[in-house]
Each structure stands twice: as structure tokens, then as C-alpha cells.
Amino acid sequence: MLALERSPQNRELASEIVRFTRRSARRYKRSRTSWGDLVVDAYSWGLGLGVALTIAASFVLALRNEIADRASTANSIIRAPWLVLPESLLWTSITFAALLVINNLARKLGPMTVNGAESTWWLMLPVDRRPMVLPPFVRKVALTAAGSAIIYLPFSMVTAVDRAPLEHVLASLTFGAAGAIAVVLAAVQQLGLLGPRLGKAIAATVLLACSVLPALPSSPWPTALVSVAAVGLFAVVVPRAGQVRGDELVRGGAVAGHAGASLFMMDPNEVLRALGGNRKRVDGGRAARFYARPSRGALRALIRADVVAFLRLNPPLVPPILWLIACTAILLVEGGLPEFAQLAVIVISGCATASGMGSVARKTALVPELDALLPLHPALVRSSRALMPCLAMAVWMGVLSGLLVLLGAANPWLIGVGALAGVGMGAGTLRAATRTPPDWTAPPVETPFGPVPRAQLGSLMRGLDVTILAMVPVLLALYLGYVPTSVIIIQAVFSAGIFLVVVLSRAKRI
After folding, report:
1. According to a count of CB atoms within 10 Å of the terminal CB, is the N or C end of the chain lower?
2. pLDDT band at 145, cuts 50/70/90?
């Protein structure tokens, strides 16, 4: 470890190094970019952003009018709920979950980071690191606050139709300041000012308090209180910005760079690998006895290896449970949401849970040549890979369907239909894990809304398409309020067809 001097001369030298590096980078970028390219890019981005904002505004206004006109739970999937949740509780819970997501992403990506080039020679210099890491951190906090406020504005318009325009603005500003607090709390944990468990507990407590304040926009005091708290926490972190360990700066920069490049290349598999690559906890105790048993035959050995790998990777249990709670709560909200909104939440929950069950498939898909060396038919290899995701999703969908049956959404046959749907959804995780990278040589298709990258979107939807398709009979049964025999047959055909198509399709090299 280098002893870093924090004298004014040392800090000025570090600032000069940063200015020289960024000035050189800007000069290099300007030399490779023409004014014509800038005008075309600005026009394309402006047109796309304008179309997206127009569609989003139309959807928000339509949903706002739909919610404002509802009178009771007559339009809900559950006709006569035996428990009704206040709307304020549901919206506050969603706000709290959003703040937790911001804090978790900030901890994974690292609020204070350096990229590869900077870590090569900046960290080796015996100078103060604060001028190097502080400006990007300030930009992250400012962008998070601005983005959170902008995103919360339509949410406030939809969930609180009786508010005045000024109250919507105050609620958005409050949530923006709370988003900045979430990032700063991640920086506090990165600096090691609090222990890991204590830091998470304090962050959750603070964010829970912040999630209540946007629901109180009748006066400017909540906005002022959250803003003062954000400035105070920021003042605590700024003088200590140069004390972050070098390995933590490099780790955060690597994860952020990996995730950013994956988003730019429209590769969700790489995004999940980047965000989940820093999980250090690997548990062999769950599968130790199962792994020690003798196996007969290559197929049994492969199935056992996949089961052991699934258990050792510790698929997180909290997100699936939270999605179950979200699906249940959205059905019990006071006044009842529109049916399409309730069905959309169930679809989103199923897709999000299914994506978390494909860790083994995503890791083995990195080197498909290893599967080719196995003395088994490729279809049997893919069947083994899909076994645990199918079982896990069948259990999750069975539990969700059981909860819906208890709430009176349909008859008990829905549990069997949901379990069958989970088989198809689990197969969709294998299809998503083996998706090919987007073909950037294919030209976009011109549409009235501008050019659409059809080939790239097709690769992005691979896996998600069959996951949604497997849920169609379940959604139909929920919409009808009972499970006809034809729906059971259709669900069995859909799930079996999806599973066969996935395991019999030719593996793609990624």
C-alpha cells in the first residue's frame, strides 16, 4: 500500500493529472467525430426520444383516466377480496422497493470507480485520489437524482390523480433527493464507515423513511427535509472520497464497464453475468450428500452435476418471494386496479423470476464446446440443463396459483395449470441463456416511428417470447375467473411444445 500524501500541493498535482487526461480524451474524440455525424446523431436521438415520450405520455394519461374512473373492485381479477390493502401502503411499498433497487445497483456498480485506463496508472501514483474519483461520483449522484425525479413524475400522476400539479412536482423532487440518498448510502458502505450488515440495515431504515415522504406533498417540508439529509450525507462522503481501496475502485469500474457495454450491445445475458459476478458466497453444504452418491451412466452424472451446480450457486430466494408478495398485493389494493394492469404485473413477475433461475445455463453457455464433448445426445444435455429451472418455476407458479385460488381468482385447477406453465417458463430460461448476440450487420427497418433494429430486437426477445407464451393459458384462466378443460389441455400442449422446441433446437454459439 502506498502512503498517500494529502497536502494541497499533492491534491493540485492529482487535479492536474485528471484535467490533462480528460482534456486529451476530449481532443481525441473530437478528432474522430465530424459535425455531420453529430447532427445526424442528435436528430436521431431527438426523434426517438420525442416518439418515446409521446407514447409514454399517452399511456400514462390513459392509465390515469382508467384508474380515476374505477369505482370498486368490480374490474379486478378477484371479484370479492376478503382483504383490502390501502392504496397508500401499496404505492409506498413500490417506492421503497425502487429505492432499494437504486441502492443495490449503486453498491454493485460502485458509486466511486475508475475505468481500466485510469486504474492502470492513476492508482499507482502516490497522490490524493479524491480529485480522481470525486467528479464522476458527483455526476452519478446528480444524474440519479434527476432521473429519479423524472421517472417518479408519471408514477405520481397515475397513483395520485387528486393531486395538484405543484404537488406532483414536489413529490417528484422528494423522490429525486431520496434517490441521491440511496447512492450516497452506497458510497458510505463502499468506504467501510459501517459494517456490511449494519450498513445494509441502516440504509434500509433510512430509505424506508424516505419512501413515506413522497406521499406527503401537501407542503414543501418533506422535500426540504430529504434534500437537507442528502446534502448532509454528501458532505460526510466528499472529504473521504479518496479513501476508497484501490481494489474496490477497480472492481466497481470493471462491473460498471461490463454492464454498460452489455447494455449498449443489447445483450441481457452479459448484463446479468456482470451484476451477478461479484457474488462470493458459494455453498457446497446443500449438495454435499447428493454429490457424494455414486452415479450410473453419463446422463445421471450430468443431471446430478447440474442439480449440484444449481444448489451451489445459491439462487436468491428473496426476489421470488418479493414478486409473489407484489402479485398478491396488486390484486388486493383498495379500489381495484384495471385487469390488464394486474395481468401485466403477473407477467412481469414471472419473467423476472424465470430470468433469475438460469444462472447455470448462462454459465455453461459461455463454452458450448464442453457440452459437445459429452457422450450424450445434445437434446439430452439441454434437457439436463433445463431440469432445475423447470422444477423451480413449476414450484413458484404453483405457489402463486395457490395464492390466487385462496383469494378467489379461480378454481383449484389453476394450481395445476400454473405448475404446467412453470415448465414452459423454465425452458424459456435455457432458450434465453443460449441466445445469439445481436447481428449488427443487419440494417434497421424503416417505420413511421423511425428506424427499428429488427434483428437486434429479435435476438433480445429470444427466451422472453416463449416465457410469455407459456403464461397465456394461465392469464386466460384468470381473466375468465375459472379454468375450463380446454385451458388445461392448451397449457399442457404449450408447455410440452415449448420444452421440446427448446431442447431439440440446435445450440447457438455465443
Report:
1. N
2. very high
490 shares a domain with 431: yes
SS3 letters for 138-170?
A: HHHHHHHHHHHHHHHHHHHHHHCCCCCHHHHHH
| pTM reported for the whole predicted model | 0.81
Question: Is 444 a member of any domain?
Answer: no
Same domain, 294 and 242: no
The rounded distance, in Å, linking the Cα atoms of 510 and 505 is 15
Find the helix packing angle between 130-159 and 165-191, rounded to 10°: 140
Is 133 buried (19+), middle (13-18) or exposed (0-12) by CB count in 10 A?
buried
For residue 175, the model assigns a pLDDT of 93
Range of the domain at 138: 8-33+70-264
Question: Over the stretch 65-76, which tens digit does the pLDDT of each residue have?
Answer: 766 665 444 567
Q: Give yes or no: residues 258 and 297 share one domain.
A: no
**Residues 422/394, Cβ–Cβ less than 8 Å:** yes
Task: Give the residue from 151, 156, 171 showing the smallest Cα distance to 56.
Answer: 151
DSSP secondary structure letters along 237-281: HGGGGGGS-HHHHHHHHHHHHHHHHHHHTT-HHHHHHHHHTT---
pLDDT tens digits for range 384-433: 888 999 999 999 999 999 999 888 888 899 999 999 999 999 999 989 88
Q: What is the DSSP code (8-state) at residue 333?
A: B
State CA 355 to chain mean position distance: 10
* Rounded distance between C-alpha atoms, residue 325 and residue 47, angstroms: 39
pLDDT of residue 182: 93
Give me the chain's average pLDDT, please: 82
DSSP bridge partners of 85: 333
Number of domains in the chain: 2
To the nearest 10 degrees (0 to 180), the angle between helices 413-433 and 378-406 is 140
